[in-house]
Every structure is written in structure tokens, then in C-alpha cells.
């Protein structure tokens, strides 16, 4: 939608948005490998091992990230630390993102000035937002405190076995655009480059805009 309506014209806002996308994907990956079951063990090994495609330093880099010669407790500890720290970085980036957005105002599908549609922030938006946040927090607290396993997967409790490919690999992962790009290219380095570039290409849009 942002590409269609030319939102990339707001260069700073757009580029911080691309960085935010990377940060959110990184946080999600760290969280995905944290339940110390078979699937997470496999996911952490496969995805971090992609860095070994980097010429010369690849293998050393992978062992440095793992903290050993395979995914183990050291890897889990550092992933947990990153999974905790990254959301704070995301929160800071969101504030900067909104700061730049506030400079220009948002875009809209008509391409016209939005000033005529604006209403005072207080009390309208403050009341709406406080109510919305309260309802969301109550819902999340209920879910976390009373039904912590409701959205989980029982397979996460299967002890990790490094000698086996997991019997319960989730096929929906293969529908993700980035993973589909990665696996559809037979060359390892080519696949990794295509995966990264599939997101970085968004940062090129402001530079390619000519009108």
C-alpha cells in the first residue's frame, strides 16, 4: 500500500520503517528459537548457519554466534538477551519514526491535503487510546496469567535431539516470502543475498523516485 501510494517520498520515515521491519523480524526469530524444543533447535541451527555463506569469515562467524560448535545453552542465553533488548530498540525506533511522520503528516489514498479532516487530539484520541490500551492489556494479562499454554504448541515440549530432523516441521514457514526466496535459489550465498535484498530493496524506492 505504501509503495502504491508513494509513501516512500517521506524518505526518513520510510527508511526507519525498513529498519523497524528488520528489527521486528530479528526479535521474532529470537523468540521463535527460545522454547528449547526440537523445532526451535532446528530453526536456530539452520537460520544462523546461513551466515556461513559469507566468504572467508562465514564459519568463524557462525561459531562465534553459537558460542561453540553447535547450538547449545550459550546460544540460548544470548538469544534470550537479544529477544529482551530488541523490543526496547524497536520502541525507540517507533518514537523516531513517529517524530519524522509528525514533520510531514501522513499520506492518504486521494493524494490530497488531510488538514480538513483533522480533529483535536484531546479529548477525542486520548479517551479512545486509553480505553483501547486498557482493554488490550486486560486481555493480554488474562491470556498470560490464566491460559499461558493456550496459544503454544505442545511440540515445544519435545526434548531437542540434534541427530534428527524434526518430525513436525511447520509447512507454513515455507509460505513466508523471505524463506520462499531463500529456498528457491539453489546456491547458498545467492539465496541469503536474495533474502536480505528482498527487504533492503524497499530502502531503494526513495532513491528511484523520479517524478
From TrEMBL:
Regions crossing the membrane: 14-34, 46-67, 79-101, 130-147, 189-208
Coiled coil: none
Membrane disposition: Multi-pass membrane protein
Subcellular location: Mitochondrion inner membrane
Keywords assigned by UniProt, alphabetized: Electron transport, Heme, Iron, Membrane, Metal-binding, Mitochondrion, Mitochondrion inner membrane, Respiratory chain, Transmembrane, Transmembrane helix, Transport, Ubiquinone
Required cofactor(s): heme b
Boundaries of every Cytochrome b/b6 C-terminal region profile domain copy: 111-211
Example GO BP: mitochondrial electron transport, ubiquinol to cytochrome c
One of the Pfam families matching this protein, by short name: Cytochrom_B_C
Keyword Membrane: yes
Entry similarity comment: Belongs to the cytochrome b family.
Assembly notes: The cytochrome bc1 complex contains 11 subunits: 3 respiratory subunits (MT-CYB, CYC1 and UQCRFS1), 2 core proteins (UQCRC1 and UQCRC2) and 6 low-molecular weight proteins (UQCRH/QCR6, UQCRB/QCR7, UQCRQ/QCR8, UQCR10/QCR9, UQCR11/QCR10 and a cleavage product of UQCRFS1). This cytochrome bc1 complex then forms a dimer.
Principal location class: mitochondrion
PANTHER family linked: CYTOCHROME B
GO (cellular component) term, any one: mitochondrial inner membrane
Domain Cytochrome b/b6 N-terminal region profile stretches: 1-110
GO molecular function, a single term: quinol-cytochrome-c reductase activity
Organism (species): Apodemus agrarius (Eurasian field mouse)
Cofactor binding, per record: Binds 2 heme groups non-covalently.
Function field: Component of the ubiquinol-cytochrome c reductase complex (complex III or cytochrome b-c1 complex) that is part of the mitochondrial respiratory chain. The b-c1 complex mediates electron transfer from ubiquinol to cytochrome c. Contributes to the generation of a proton gradient across the mitochondrial membrane that is then used for ATP synthesis.
Name under which the protein is recorded: Cytochrome b
Amino acid at each position: 500500500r505504501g509503495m502504491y501510494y508513494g509513501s516512500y517520498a517521506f524518505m526518513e520515515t520510510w527508511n526507519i520503517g525498513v529498519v523497524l521491519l528488520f528489527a521486528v523480524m530479528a526479535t521474532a526469530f529470537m523468540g521463535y528459537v527460545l522454547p528449547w524444543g526440537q523445532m526451535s533447535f532446528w530453526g536456530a541451527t539452520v537460520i544462523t548457519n546461513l551466515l556461513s555463506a559469507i566468504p572467508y569469515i562465514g564459519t568463524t562467524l557462525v561459531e562465534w554466534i553459537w558460542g561453540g560448535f553447535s547450538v547449545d545453552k550459550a546460544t540460548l542465553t544470548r538469544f534470550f538477551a537479544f529477544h529482551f533488548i530488541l523490543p526496547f530498540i524497536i520502541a525507540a525506533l517507533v518514537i523516531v519514526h513517529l517524530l519524522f511522520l509528525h514533520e510531514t503528516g501522513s499520506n492518504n489514498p486521494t493524494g490530497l491535503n488531510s488538514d480538513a479532516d483533522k480533529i483535536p487530539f484531546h479529548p477525542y484520541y486520548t479517551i479512545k487510546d486509553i480505553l483501547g490500551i486498557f482493554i488490550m492489556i486486560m486481555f493480554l494479562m488474562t491470556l498470560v496469567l490464566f491460559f499461558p499454554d493456550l496459544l503454544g504448541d505442545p511440540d515445544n515440549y519435545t526434548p531437542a535431539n540434534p541427530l534428527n530432523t524434526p518430525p513436525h516441521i511447520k509447512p507454513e514457514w515455507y509460505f513466508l516470502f523471505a524463506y520462499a526466496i531463500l529456498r528457491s535459489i539453489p546456491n547458498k550465498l545467492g539465496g541469503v543475498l536474495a533474502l536480505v535484498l528482498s527487504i533492503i530493496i524497499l530502502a531503494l524506492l526513495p532513491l528511484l523516485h523520479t517524478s
